[in-house]
Amino acid sequence: MINYPNKKKSDNIKLSSSANRGMNFEAMINQTNDFYLDNDIAVIHKKPIPIQIVSVDYKMRSAAKIVEAYYKLPSTTDYNGIYKGRYIDFEAKETKTKTSFPMKNIHEHQIKHLAQVRKHGAISFIIVYFSVLGRIFFLDSDYVVSFYERSQNNRKSITIEEFEKYGHEIKEGYRKPVDYLSIIDKFYK
Q1: CA geometry: angle at 27 spanning 22 and 30, to 5°?
Q2: pLDDT digits (tens, 9 = 90+) for 131-140
Q3: Which terminus of the chain, N or C, has fewer Cβ atoms within 10 Å?
């Protein structure tokens, strides 16, 4: 069981879903980041989620099982690091919808964090994987924050057409499945 900061509990949590080649989206990004690190291109890592362990089942020391845990505080974004002297911070999301990305999948504190790091000179963005379509998009945080601010009581999702118009599609690769640095090289000077 995982207990969220808002006191909601969840016993049935799906931690990952299948993507191309049987690899989940997070694993695709991690493989890409490993390639960047191994080839001295960039240093970008997944941020650990701060949890407080409450109860552990110790049947055997080698098979200890966390039975209950709480998120200590809402985490910011999934990944951060440095590339060519610039700080990079981004959130990675996956959606099964074909037509849009539901904004409920990204939390207000994450949007505020993306805006804050951008204000201080970071390159910040989201990467969204439309798993049913097999398409991956890079969307700059300026657009995400602007959309969020404009849509407080209106639209609840960013359409695939908006990703095509305002974002950048990332073609899936083999050694770098989600080569987002190629987008940064093209559009951020």
Answers
A1: 150
A2: 999 999 999 9
A3: C
CATH of 18-48+74-187, one of 2.60.40.10, 3.40.1350.10, 3.40.50.970, 3.30.70.890: 3.40.1350.10
pTM value is 0.78
Distance CA 71, CA 74 (A): 7
Strand order in the sheet with 65-71: 9-10, 2-3, 65-71, 51-57
Handedness of CA 36, 38, 43, 48 (dihedral sign): positive
Pairwise CA distance, residues 112 & 91, whole Å: 12
Rounded Cα distance between 39 and 11, Å, is: 40
> What gap in Å lies between CA 92 and CA 127, rounded to an integer?
5
